[in-house]
Amino acid sequence: MPVGVNDQEGRLRPAPESFLSEELISEISHRGVDKSRRDLLRGSFAAALAGASGLTFADDPNIVNVPEWSRSLGKPVATNPYGQPSPFEANIIRRQSPGLTQTDQASVAFTPLQNLFGCITPSGLHFERHHQGWVDIDPQRHRLMINGLVKKPLVFTVADLLRMPSVSRMHFLECGANTALEWGNSAVPTVQYTHGMLSGSEWTGVPLSLLLERAGYDRDARYLLAEGADGSGMTRTINLTGALEDAIVAYGQNGEMLRPEQGYPLRLVVPGVQGVSWVKWLRRLEVGNKPYATKDEASHYVDLMPSGQLRQYTAIQEAKSVITAPSAGQKLLNQGYYCITGLAWSGRGSVRKVDISVDGGRNWQEARLEGALSSKMLTRFNFDWVWRGEPALLQSRVHDDTGYIQPQRAALVAERGTRSIYHNNAIQTWRVSPSGEVDNVQVG
Amino acid sequence: MFRWARLSIVCLTFLGGNALAQDYLSALNELGRTATAAELSAWDIDVRPDFLGLPPGSGSVAQGEALWLDQCASCHGDFGDSNEVFSPIVLGNITEDDVRTGRVAALTDPSVVRTTFMKVATLSTIWDYINRAMPWNAPKSLAADEVYSLVAYLLNLAYIVDDDFVLSDENMEDVQALMPNRNGMTEDHGLWSVNGVPDVVGSACITNCSVDTTITSFLPDYAMNAHGNLRDQMRHYGPLPGVQTAPTPQLSVSQPAQSDSLDQIPADLLAVSGCEACHQVNKALVGPGFTAIRARYAGADASAYLAKKIRQGGQGVWGSVPMPAMNQLDDTVVEALALWLASGK
Q1: Where are the alpha helices (DSSP H) in B102-143?
Q2: Which CATH homologous superfamily contains domain B58-176?
């Protein structure tokens, strides 16, 4: 069954696992390769090589024995009227971090960033963060109210909003507490848990400014209260001046209606601002002349400084980047070419440049940026790398179009300490060991 | 920029005439309607730090204690100090000095658990939140007087007011002046506005940068499996498979399972055999739950059939989603799993 394919390097493909006993594999993958295990490995490789002679290739049974899917009638259309990923992708799912929260309704499920491509997050894998569970709202019975410092308080049905002029914009959404577990030390084993409260989507809806114009908002007002219709009645103070520029009362996400976990049927989209302000199940917008100090901007989402002061109304997500593959918990199959890939974003504008270091930040080279560089949206970066078995420390560093550069962890901690929970945008380090295993480490 | 002016220009070009654009603007204004007074009072429930929005009413510490024990203590503890369901609301870390200065000194001490009353600067926050969101399982069920009494009880637990205190819309401002961390917030940072000035900016250095590359932190071995087996969280067939972090599998299942052990879930075996990607024990995932499978084949002597199905995969018994052939598994593993799956009662 295993195929030994060798090229000029004498490399073996696919996974050398095929030639190894289960015990050996799990020993190695758990503890790394030491001298005695390395010798054992060599033995197995040599045996496999002996089987395949020189530069000829063994026949691949997956080719010579025509597979069953090529020899049978496939399934009818609309077997799954709402399509599903391949069953072979069933392990690529949102996951919780055990012990992070005491309940499942005030909790988080993280996006599997290590397994995703491009910069759009599939809606079903979009991270979840709720404070009082998620709800299924009947759109027929849902309303949006606009009140406060307006000439005329208004009520809209979902039909009204769907009828109005709409915009579609690509924006990232990052929880203010993304990477919160990593302030003090390396705490979680993969990028899903370090950075997985992050997503990129196309959002469709009515510009906030249009709705506020319609209500005749007070030009001197500087604040907006956004309120949800769920049990928590989530409320957040929004910077009105910023929101008039680009906030959206959204109903669409990636071409379909919002998922219930994302606020169906209405959510406020506040580009560049932390996720908690993107109030889900949006029912009310109040224009005001003072901030509101709601629970989630007075007890939580306040950043504790070493002085004991709490920074209140921290909203903007500063520029940040992370390598999503190779990343912690993965293992390089063998030596040779790898594409180091990842995501970069900035809450202040667009990504200008991403640098990659494979030596812990000593030397940097520029990565390729893929696709259009949209403002306040994820940008995918790629970097060609040849790994020859040497230990490496992988880092990425983003520059945004305001000239801001993502800081090293040590610099951020020197200013803010390790107890501020929110807004950790430090450079992330992944360590590649000679065995090919990658893990989450901190340097300096 | 979605300013009205811009929008009408866009639409002007679209509609090709000023008259039409006027038409369009007023037609747009027909969407949505004015909110009624009753609607506004039903939904406009927020209470601001200056107490704008606070409804009249009052409640005593004693009333609050009774309500608390009845409706809140199960989650927050009798004294608001439990961390079972959420972080503690009060713990007794607030000093008289804090109340005097309006700064909670213990916030600089990493060994002290941060409670709600150590952080929150504004009394309105507590009132507003309990009123809109608590009790957690029955939000928006409390009357205004009940909220006043619950806030009074919490203030008492935090040593801010006495046992015989009655909180009301009349004295909220007086109590605000006693909030232990009322001076503890700062808005002096760059994160409120998109134009804010960052406090820390990274280095642009490209070569031979002076950085310390000593590893200062990594996950110890024993923590690697705390999030489950990482091997199952990556693409098995990709160039970057997951690291095996589950304990070394016990593959010594060659001795046939004893009938008395068949009721036990062979968790280790399931974990290393890749079934959990699609099956859970008690509920359907991609494939049916194992409990459902065991119930279906109870007493049917189906172990040979199930072993074959595991080896070869197939579809149509539970739905149209196919199960792939699991032909990488040892016979002993397949047989042990099939035996267990066929042993339902």
Answers
A1: 116-119, 123-133
A2: Cytochrome c-like domain (1.10.760.10)
